[in-house]
Amino acid sequence: MAATVENMILFLAARPVTAPPVRPIPRRRRARFRPPARLRPLAPYRRIFAVPGTRAFTAANLLARLPMGMLSISAVLMIAGSRGSYALAGAVTATGLAATALAGPWTARLIDRYGQSRIAVPATALATLGSLSLLLCVHYGAPDWTLFASYAATATTPNTGGMSRARWAHLFRDDPAARHTANSFEQAADELCFLLGPLLATLLCTTLFPEAGTAVAAALLLTGVLLFAAQRRTEPPAAARTGGHTPTRSPLRLPGLPPLLLTFLCTGAIFGSLEVVTLAYADAHGIRSAGGALLALQAAGSGAAGLLYGLLRPTARPGRRFVRCLAAMASLMLLPLVAASTGSPAALAAALLLAGMATAPTMVTGMGLVQSRTPPGQLNEGMTLAVTALLAGIAAGSASGGWAVDHLPGPGAAYGVPAAAAALALTITLLTGRRRPHRP
Fold it and tell me: Which residues are within 8 A (CB) of 264 and not within 5 positions of it... i.e. 6 or more apart?
């Protein structure tokens, strides 16, 4: 037995010692670095536009929305250039504004009830015919009353921005953060259209012929709405097709909405008075051609703030955020008043840029409140009422700003009108917010 063990040991010892085979370590694929969401500033916007169909309806809506900043100034330049009367041009556009305030909510109610594609196209076609009628009446020297009748026919123009916001609200009805980002983008788009629209209209009317602005605006409006209506898969369902009860109660009777519309009225007064006062200030300082550029700075500040606001994740309740935004706007609207008193156009330009930065966040939050306080079947009508309140405020603000320019000592003092309108908007919100419980 011992010999056997000894032979086994000698046998094992005589075997050559070899290392075990080394298996190659599989090479791992290098993981692709993806920065966290907080380091990707445009992630919220990429997220909303990743939904199929959103890019198509947004591009079409921007094309349809651009004429909103062109039609009014094109009509003024066309009528004043042909008839030699800014008073007549202002009266015609004011008539169209009043007609829009009356017809706009009814058009929006039909859109809610029967659908965007079914109502928006014929309504836009009628408005386009009104613009073309105005163009022909001016060109061929028709009586003045035909100008009023023609421009009043453009009141059926649908609220293109409201229809786009309604689609976002439908797509992200269960995602408040995405709705906030979408509303911020829409407000920035509004600012862009009202920034580029007047510049394009002025360029067309002054370099080509007086009717060019109206003709191009009408063509863009009709083309954009046709393309927008063709995007059916993102269209919210009409109240008449959902099988539910079609609401007949006006949103004006909904709790919480009338005070909000009154705030929008004051906000519109800020915009209207700021435009008139700024143009008068530029004219008084011998830089009349720079008046549009000064107003463009205010719109640029608002648009940039709107995009940045969309990147933030809201924490406070919408009602509280709205009060904070109004407080910021009331504070920043004092800057143009202070800057104008120095007599420096450069200081005023910087003040308008800063003052505009509170506009978009205020409008985004306010439109969000309108959406939350309006039933889904009346969303277009509710937002159109908000736009109507803004238009009425713009008209009142323009009149108040013009009166202040003529009666106050120096155009700089007239900047007290937009500052007072901002303070009034904040006061109304504070008073009405205490009377009723908060609704997000």
Answer: 366, 386, 389, 390, 393
Q: Specify whether the CB–CB gap between 201 and 213 falls below 8 A.
A: yes
Instruction: Verify that 337 and 440 share a domain, yes or no.
Output: yes
Q: State whether 319 and 219 are in the same domain.
A: no
What mean pLDDT is predicted for residues 266-294? 79
Residue 302, exposed/middle/buried by CB under 10 A (0-12, 13-18, 19+)?
buried
Predicted TM-score of the model (pTM): 0.70
Q: ∠ at Cα 155 (190, 114), nearest 5°?
A: 85
Token pair for 167: 């689609």
Other Cβ atoms closer than 10 A to 437: 8
- Same-domain check for residues 165 and 297: no
pLDDT band at 39 (very low <50, low <70, confident <90, very high): very low
Residues 6+ apart with CB under 8 A from 191: 299, 300, 302, 303, 306, 359, 360
Tokens of 392: 């009425």
CA dihedral of 261, 267, 269, 270, whole degrees rounded to 10? 180
Q: What is the pLDDT of residue 247?
A: 54
70 and 195 in contact (C-beta within 8 Å)?
Answer: no
Name the residue range of residue 141's domain.
54-238
Neighbours of 346 (CB within 10 A): 9
Q: Are 92 and 77 in contact (CB under 8 A)?
A: no
What is the C-alpha to C-alpha distance for residues 282 and 288, in angstroms, rounded to an integer?
5
Whole-angstrom distance, CA of residue 61 vs CA of residue 238:
19
CATH code for position 71: 1.20.1250.20
Pick the most confident of 70-79, 190-199, 207-216, 380-389: 207-216
Burial letters 267-295, b for 16+ CB under 10 A, else e: bbbbbbbbbbbbbbbbeebeeeebbbebb
Give the mean pLDDT of 236-255. Answer: 62
Rounded to the nearest 10 degrees, what angle do helices 291-311 and 359-373 cross at?
Answer: 60
